[in-house]
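Attaching the record inline, Q. Sequence:
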Amino acid sequence: MTAKIEAVDENVDRAANRSADKTTGAKILLTGAAGFIGMHVARQLLERGDQVLGIDNLNDYYDPALKMARLGVLQQYSNFRFVKADVADQDAIKRLFADEKPQRVVHLAAQAGVRYSIKNPHAYIQSNLVGFGNILEECRNHQIEHLVYASSSSVYGANEKMPFSVQDSVDHPVSLYAATKKANELMAHSYSHLYGLPTTGLRYFTVYGPWGRPDMSPWLFTSAIMEGRQIDVYNHGKMRRDFTYIDDIAEGTVCVLDHVATPDPSFAAMHPHPGSSRAPYRVYNIGNNRPVELMKFIQTIENELGMEAIKNFLPMQDGDVIATFADVKDLERDTCFAPKTSLETGIGRWVEWYCDYLKLFCKGS
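Structure, as predicted:
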């Protein structure tokens, strides 16, 4: 089954062959390698010739078969290796750093999902707090050149000032998931300040695209529409999201990894803001900078499928926010990167991938 699923991406074989003779790049540890964002970031690093050591605990938050399929794509690259490990396992992470001696770290492993954090808070404490603490400590012990880690747009919480800026206060999270991501930023700053560890946090905004998660709205909407089931539309559809295509997210992450955090000479201690510091520390938004109404998002999927959704309008869910909108000026200024994929293009690629994946999955069952 895995071999069939790998064939969904027509460029995988060519990209793997291109990378075969380019293994002279940096050695990068990437946590959450079997995850949605992790897989795409790993591919960009592999294609440019970096050596990537991927780790993941392959938990069953959603079907591990999808995670294994993503790993199947990455394992076609000669400069990729995978180790099954849990970032919350202190001894395992300590051994991994000691044995492998990575130069840089991209930390994407986390317990994802806003709504699930209400049902299972302990999973978030273990993975997002204990796990991140283990990564920070080993980065410090091994003089890592740069730690880039996943934060989230959810840290903006009850803030209604739009667009969200990294200079804004983020002291009012509305879910435990968001609170753990804010905590990650604070933990990273303490290590940057105390030990000079360069760290950069990335606040990702509503990521979608091929190889996405089954618990995310594109998958939930697409599968329900195709199967004639109703879709749940929260807050009666009166929500806006800064939907950001996965290739833009991956490219931005790699750009930031190359732009090692340094102390900000313009940092004003009398008027501090959360995005920079006297320490080698940065936080950036990565979003499309063009929020879209939820109903337009659904309509774009309907247009691609040529089918209409059966909509079940519901009130706002606990832990959700009305809108997200990324101010990406700091990211553009420092890295010259800006997301560029339109919603129509991104949804077209998503639907094409999903239909191909579904057909291959059914054949392999």
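The first strand starts at residue 27 and ends at 31. The first helix runs from residue 2 to 6.

More tomorrow.
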